[in-house]
Design a protein that fits this description.
The chain is of the alpha/beta class. It is built from 7 helices and 6 strands. It has one domain: Rossmann fold, CATH 3.40.50. The structure holds NADP nicotinamide-adenine-dinucleotide phosphate. NADP nicotinamide-adenine-dinucleotide phosphate binds next to helix 1 and helix 5.
Length: about 220
């Protein structure tokens, strides 16, 4: 691994993103990790302005990690939930890829990792928008693996199960206990376990995995 590679990482303030940040920092990557105040992924103008200011950034590795999930039954689904989940989980990641791919193409090396979810591969009630966006980003991963493979840019999705972050911990303890009961490994994943996989995927050790939607769910989706 070249210690000089530049990584662009979203959602590094907490949870999985923070664990990825910590791991990659130890591995001597140069990391650009804008806070929500610097780059609000829910705001197309913020993204446009940020891109304009940063258009000369030479990013070798893009990790689209930031994401939201507001579970609502379909008959109570608010317009705000539809637009925000689409914007943050799907549209902004696509636009960030569009921004950084030209440099990757030019240097004939790039790595893109989208933090998706097991709900990019299976579904769950009350999770329509989350499921839509995570299936969507898995589709983006496959389409771009085809498009960018000839440029030596590898594109993958990491699809975690239940991870020990705010996204899960906001549930009452009895709900978390019920979720864990259905996980063959009998526990939540720790964010550091997700970071380990991301670190491998973006490294030079990954020479042939592209277009993959990789489950890391403790076996949850096997049943
Ligand atoms: N936790 C799980 O069980 C789980 C399972 C499967 C997949 N995932 C996926 O993993 C990724 C990270 O999840 P997590 O559990 O680490 O989530 P988290 O602890 O809730 O953290 C979410 C991160 O996204 C950022 N973010 C949210 N809205 C943003 C916006 N409008 N603009 C910029 N940044 C924004 C947050 O920034 P602030 O600190 O400013 O809010 C935070 O850094 C997500 O894509 C999620 O879907 C999580």
């Amino acid at each position: 691994m070249s210690p000089k590679k530049t990584v662009f990482l979203t959602g590094a303030s907490r949870g999985i993103g923070k664990a990825i940040y910590t791991k990659l920092k130890k591995e001597k990557y140069y990391i650009i990790a804008p806070t929500r105040r610097e780059l609000d992924l829910n705001n197309p103008i913020s993204l446009y302005r940020y891109n304009d200011i940063q258009k000369n950034l030479k990013v070798d590795v893009l990790i689209n990690n930031a994401g939201i999930n507001f579970p609502q039954w379909i008959d109570e689904l608010e317009d705000k939930n539809i637009s925000e989940t689409l914007q943050i989980n799907l549209i902004s990641p696509i636009k960030l890829i569009r921004t950084f791919v030209p440099h990757m193409k030019k240097q004939r090396w790039g790595r893109i990792v989208n933090i998706s979810s097991m709900f990019g591969l299976v579904a769950r009630g009350k999770q329509t928008m989350y499921t839509v966006t995570k299936h969507g980003i898995n589709g983006v991963t496959k389409a771009l693996a085809l498009e960018l493979g000839p440029h030596n840019i590898l594109v993958n999705s990491v699809c975690p199960g239940f991870v020990n972050t705010d996204l899960v911990k906001r549930n009452p303890p009895e709900k978390i206990a019920a979720l864990v009961k259905d996980v063959p490994l009998g526990r939540l994943a720790e964010p550091e376990e997700i970071a380990e996989l991301v670190s491998f995927l973006i490294s030079n050790k990954n020479t042939y995995i592209t277009g993959a939607n990789i489950l890391i769910d403790g076996g949850f989706t096997c049943r």
